């Protein structure tokens, strides 16, 4: 890999690099060994603690993990399906020419982006329990989905808005010049193009939603994947470290496939770029969103917007 | 343009397939839980070994045994019981709403709760206690806790008792589950895990912990476990009768032995119905 | 109406939130910049480490990372970061967990900032004989930071809200206070409004001020 940040390496630089590599390797190996030795010393690597997950038996998965995983996916899917159209509406509303549409939409978006999802979930849970007759089976799910939707719809609204704003001005000018109405301009010209540019950012947002379902388990009583550790580790003799590791790996696999999908999508769109083609790297969205939106850009969302593969390391791409 | 449609379609497909798997699982759950037409729904804990624990083979624990016995006396066989997890903070709401018929989930009878729900029983007298490493001799009374590092569950009454009255100077680590506390206790990052002795006995009698932990026997509070029913429900009288016969025919003793046996736990004799020790 | 507030330390809880935010912000800025330097540097192993770190950390829920910090480091590996009592130790470990998590996002924001610096800048710097470290420290990073103020502001705001996850290991910050209050008081809307107001008070001005700073310092190209 070549980069504009450093020269092609001569013999001395190569030797130096080998030295750095060796030092770094030793540091990582030492840390790894220390971790292994200490865990072993504290009996955390005993086979009995890991056996439920690695011992070839599927009972831990079918009894505890699979039901939790189902709930995680269910909440994430519901939140996504509801938040996406809501976010689109809010995002377009913020671009409206009418003050009475634009201002309320802006207030809603800014408000829900400023508050932690966790707080929104606690609020939702108490709201459903005090003022509705949703059964206790569904209540945590509703609360989690409500929190996720309120927050993520606001972030998606910013993605949509940024996507539309990022289009060349000529697009809407040309569309208006041929006599299209405002809603036709939006529907026929701007949105179809913006959707393409926004896709990677939107898919990245799905990762945020999947991760944030875990908040529901930690503070509400939503029986999702992470909270399945509670029931599971109490049965298998408090093997909390092993249980959390297994669950972390499952989250990693789900989200990594999602980010890889987003990366693949972004790469594909970049390669085939057509006239308007600038793909909205996630960072651009956060950037534009932040600038235009009083800077209160998204949150676990804002962060996670950063596309999985933001350009190359150098600036040569 | 074609490409855009393809990518948009694939995104839609992805979300749909995720939704579909979720829905698929949903249906299966329904089928599993609503077996016969005539069932009874009982709230228990899912993560307290010895009290109420979800296992790959079903549910086990003292509360589960008591609830099964009571259900039998009410005319439901064990496969007509639908178990539901009732976490501590949820119990009153679940009863009020009728989500469950009754709750047996290490549910202490307190004046505040009696304002909201009715209690049958008590069926067990427990005490707030500590679980310490088997070789630890430093904790002999509640006062000793002031110098100790304790662990309990976030929002539990045991945690509140420690801070308010029992040992205000103690250091208290709070976790979402008792299992997390046990990890620290094993590795000496925590000196004692505190909650009801019945729950502690359940943990300590797990096979993996044999000989590693012991109960402190401090008896710091009285916790009268009752069976919660909806306010004004006629179930209360029936459950009380069932509990009486459980004690008199020896099933109660058998259940205590089976669930709390191995852990140096000296259970109180079966409490009389309506005899709430404060 | 506000009487019940006397029983709770609302200001103290938000002060903990602010402390968590500030300490984690400084820590993750340092660690995130180092990670970004690794990712654009000439040593392949470090590049690989940086990439793997970012991709792993970003895809795990923060709750898991924070629980690992407390349960794994403190309770299993006996690392309590020099704290003598449990509360301090949990607080410091929460900061550590937040740093580990947020640094991945800081790294990406800075890398995106580096991408905005024109190629000519680095080429000119190399042409006058600067080494990689000098190119990065003297020429590229100063410009990259100016472009990264806005993305970094988003990261900071996200961090402010993410501190609520520290409630999972019992750090007495705003979200834990809210949970305690809603369980004991029948004032749901009022309590929610107070907590929401508190967070708006922390995040909205941060966004406004740093948004202004970001525009002010951005390199006009």
TrEMBL record, chain B:
CDD domains: PBP2_GluB
Pfam family, any one: SBP_bac_3
Residue ranges constituting the Solute-binding protein family 3/N-terminal domain according to the UniProt record: 39-263
Keyword terms, alphabetized: Signal, Transport
Domain of life: Bacteria
Signal sequence annotation: 1-24
A single BP term in Gene Ontology: amino acid transport
GO cellular component: extracellular region; outer membrane-bounded periplasmic space
Family membership noted in the UniProt record: Belongs to the bacterial solute-binding protein 3 family.
Protein name: Glutamate-binding protein
Source species: Streptomyces lucensis JCM 4490
Automatic annotation (TrEMBL), chain C:
Signal peptide interval: none
Membrane topology per record: Multi-pass membrane protein
Source taxon at top rank: Bacteria
Alphabetical list of SUPFAM superfamilies matching this protein: MetI-like
Keyword set includes Transmembrane helix: yes
Main localization of the protein described in the UniProt heading: membrane
InterPro entries from the UniProt entry: AA_ABC_transptr_permease_3TM, ArtM/GltK/GlnP/TcyL/YhdX-like, MetI-like, MetI-like_sf
Transmembrane stretches, start-end: 20-40, 52-73, 93-114, 126-149, 155-176, 188-213
Intracellular or extracellular location(s): Cell membrane
Sorted UniProt keywords: Amino-acid transport, Cell membrane, Membrane, Transmembrane, Transmembrane helix, Transport
A GO molecular-function annotation: transmembrane transporter activity
Single GO biological process annotation from the record: amino acid transport
Annotated ranges, domain ABC transmembrane type-1: 14-210
Matching PROSITE patterns: ABC_TM1
GO cellular component, one term: ATP-binding cassette (ABC) transporter complex
Family, as annotated: Belongs to the binding-protein-dependent transport system permease family. HisMQ subfamily.
Protein name per its UniProtKB record: Glutamate ABC transporter permease
Source organism: Streptomyces lucensis JCM 4490
